[in-house]
């Protein structure tokens, strides 16, 4: 491991916490993006809803598009977290990016704390490479490393110039500007989601050092901005012991929804069972001075829909 990695590691293992933040970014960003998706064409969300396993890794099949998205958005999340930490002075060995200086224009100058995405990218690649080295097959390692770079690049491409005015009585005699990373990680997630939809399919080669080549032989290699995968995604409808996916039989679904939680999508066309559930619940609660609440007990009947 390089000196960059050792220089950033603290006794409190804060760097490891940033990697955990990356996993958290994947979970929360994916959940929110899927929640906002009103159409049923977002395959990532459909698969995520159908799988519903205890861990993300069980839902993400190695080598497929969803795996590509996972590695990219996790790397972007780590880089985002490290960038924020460097800017706030959490690490003694990193801080603001000082490479931008001078006055490119007459009315503004580079000042302030530039987001150090470059340093964060190096650290993220170091940490991620250690994880990737345990993934086994050479083609998976190559795919995962490529998608990690795509995730980091997506963050760096969203850097923007932020400026502040200086002058007497609110005038703007001089503006100081710095490069700022996006504060809302969801913007990075949306960018990577677009790349997920257009991910490039690769095929494994039997000979040569490249290991993977594009399925479309008209192109030599994928763009550095493109996510890549070499395996088709399963539909997660049926139990698959090899892939450790539980299927959707028995899953509770929403009969009134046309979204990814609806019985139409979740049950994969098999239909659903209706169970009538009667339960006793508290009702007609009243507050008495002072100080207690008295409730009646009512019978409540509701229907539960589960996939066949």
From TrEMBL:
GO MF terms, alphabetically ordered: cytokine activity; frizzled binding
Principal subcellular localisation of the protein: secreted
UniProt keyword terms in alphabetical order: Developmental protein, Disulfide bond, Extracellular matrix, Lipoprotein, Secreted, Wnt signaling pathway
UniProt cross-references to Pfam families, sorted A to Z: wnt
Cellular localisation: Secreted, Extracellular space, Extracellular matrix
GO process annotations (BP): canonical Wnt signaling pathway; cell fate commitment; neuron differentiation
SMART domains with a match to the protein in the record: WNT1 (SM00097)
UniProt GO cellular component terms: extracellular space
Function: Ligand for members of the frizzled family of seven transmembrane receptors.
Family of the protein in this entry: Belongs to the Wnt family.
PANTHER family, alphabetized: PROTEIN WNT, WNT RELATED
Record protein name field: Protein Wnt
């Amino acid at each position: 491991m390089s000196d960059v990695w050792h220089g950033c590691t603290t006794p409190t293992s804060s760097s490891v916490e940033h990697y955990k933040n990356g996993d958290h970014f994947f979970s929360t960003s994916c959940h929110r993006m899927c929640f906002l998706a009103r159409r049923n064409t977002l395959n990532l969300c459909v698969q995520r809803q159908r799988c519903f396993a205890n861990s993300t890794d069980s839902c993400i099949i190695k080598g497929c598009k969803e795996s590509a998205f996972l590695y990219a958005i996790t790397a972007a999340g780590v880089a985002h977290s490290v960038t924020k930490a460097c800017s706030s002075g959490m690490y003694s060995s990193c801080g603001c990016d000082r490479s931008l200086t001078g006055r490119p224009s007459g009315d503004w100058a580079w000042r302030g704390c530039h987001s150090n995405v470059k340093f964060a990218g190096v650290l993220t690649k170091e940490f991620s490479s250690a994880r990737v080295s345990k993934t086994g097959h050479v083609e998976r390692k190559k795919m995962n490393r490529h998608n990690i770079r795509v995730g980091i690049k997506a963050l760096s491409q969203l850097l923007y110039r932020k400026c502040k005015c200086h002058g007497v009585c609110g005038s703007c005699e001089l503006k100081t500007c710095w490069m700022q990373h996006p504060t809302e990680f969801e913007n990075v997630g949306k960018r990577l989601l677009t790349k997920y939809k257009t991910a490039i399919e690769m095929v494994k080669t039997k000979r040569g050092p490249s290991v993977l080549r594009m399925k479309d032989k008209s192109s030599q290699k994928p763009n550095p901005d493109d996510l890549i995968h070499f395996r088709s995604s399963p539909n997660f409808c049926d139990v698959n012991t090899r892939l450790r996916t539980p299927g959707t039989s028995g899953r509770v679904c929403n009969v009134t929804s046309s979204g990814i939680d609806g019985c139409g999508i979740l049950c994969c066309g098999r239909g659903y069972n209706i169970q009538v559930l009667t339960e006793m619940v508290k009702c007609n609660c009243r507050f008495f001075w002072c100080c207690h609440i008295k409730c009646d007990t009512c019978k409540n009947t509701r229907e539960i829909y589960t996939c066949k």
